[in-house]
Amino acid sequence: MPTGIQELYNQAITTASITDSMAISNFLNPVEEARAVEGQTTDEELLEEIIEGQLGHQNSQNDDEEEEQPEQPAPTAKEAQDALQILIEYSEGQDALTNGGIYGH
């Protein structure tokens, strides 16, 4: 994990008074994603195969359209750190910010 991300994450948790946060490693690498064993079909892959079987080649035309669009590169560690810093500054500027506001309750 890039240096500084953990500290910023902890600062965001402290600043926002979050009491039920998850470890950043669990957030970045969820256990659910690690369960897919190599060589086995995941639920998502199985569902996609069923859908393609029912709809025929209709999905392959959509796939061709999607392939034409270049993938957006993942944010760099610096960009992620900058975004987290902006969120911290925003939350510090909100006098009435509560955990409910953060979680959308």
TrEMBL record:
Ranges where the record places region Disordered: 52-82
Protein name from the UniProt record: Uncharacterized protein
